Amino acid sequence: MPLNIVLAEDSPLLRDGLVSVLTRFGHQVSAAVGDADALIAAAHEHDPDIVITDVRMPPGNADDGLRAAVVLRGHRAGLPILVLSQYIEQSYATHLLDLGSESGIGYLLKDRVSAVAHFASTVEQVAAGATVMDPEVVRQLLRRRQDPLRRLTPREREVLSLMAEGRSNAEIARDLYVTEAAVNKHVSSILQKLDLRLDGHGHRRVLAVLTYLRA
Fold first, then answer.
1. Cα(194)–Cα(183) distance, rounded to whole angstroms?
2. 21-57 burial by CB neighbour count: b if 16+ within 10 A, else e?
3. 22 closest CA partner among 114, 119, 128
4. Which of 49, 88, 98, 174 has its CA 20 to 30 A from that of 72?
5. How many CB atoms lie within 10 A of CB 110?
6. Cβ contact 89:66 at 8 Å
7. Who's near 215: CB < 8 A, 6+ residues apart?
8. Helix, strand, or coil here: 96?
9. Is 108 exposed, middle or buried (0-12, 13-18, 19+ CB in 10 A)?
10. Distances from the Cα of 5 to the Cα of 52, 112, 133, angstroms
11. Separation of alpha carbons 131 and 111, rounded Å
């Protein structure tokens, strides 16, 4: 059954290629846009069966595509979302899986798009309500779960161990003979590497310490 698709990709060449592939497999691309704001507008206008979006795109050239997907999913619960990414970003994959419903979610590396039949099949599966994660993303997520601290540098582990002892950043700085600014930078890096977002459900510093204690 043909799908009504809204597509967002800031590279004109790749965007045209994706439209060509999807059309070849019998689907209708109602809108193909190049930035996150246009994606939100197009999805509201065309009420698609699935949204396919790049993660990084204008206007911020950060995770604007993913943020737009979150907005759209909040506006229409269960809207199937397939996210494309140039690189494996564990925090993006985790964020995507945290959207709420267990259905209609996909995360695919752009390298897989060249296998057009597999790409088209993934689009159809996600549109039908499946959750499809790129195999390499799954492997990395599993490795991270097995050892959530492995991404930390030795110094960051040292800082985290002192955090677990209840030390403030100023106290950690004195113990390690570094500036407090350096400690702040280490703490920020630790939170980022442990994929701990400030989402209102818990203080990230506490969550980091809990992760350390569990590991």
1. 16
2. bbeebebebbbbbbbbebbbebbeebebbbbbbbbbb
3. 119
4. 88
5. 18
6. no
7. 147, 148, 149
8. helix
9. buried
10. 7, 19, 19
11. 19
Question: 114, 107, 120, 62: which is closest to 81 by C-alpha?
Answer: 107
Select from 135, 68, 126 the least CA-distant residue to 101.
Answer: 126
pLDDT, one tens digit per residue, over 126-153 is 999 887 878 777 666 555 555 678 788 9
Secondary structure of 136-156 as H, E, C letters: HHHHHHHHHHHCCCCCCCHHH
**Which tokens sit at 198?**
């400030």
* Ramachandran angles phi, psi of 28, nearest 5°: -105, 125
pTM for this entry: 0.65
Encoded tokens for 156: 């960051």
215 or 16, higher pLDDT:
16
Domains of the chain (ranges; CATH) run: 4-143 (3.40.50.2300), 147-214 (1.10.10.10)
Is residue 120 a contact partner of residue 141, using CB atoms and an 8 Å limit? no
**What is the amino acid identity at position 205?**
R
How far is residue 190's CA from residue 206's CA, in Å, rounded to a whole number? 12
pLDDT in tens, 86-140: 876 656 666 666 655 556 888 888 888 888 998 999 999 999 988 787 877 766 6
Tokens of 146: 């097995």
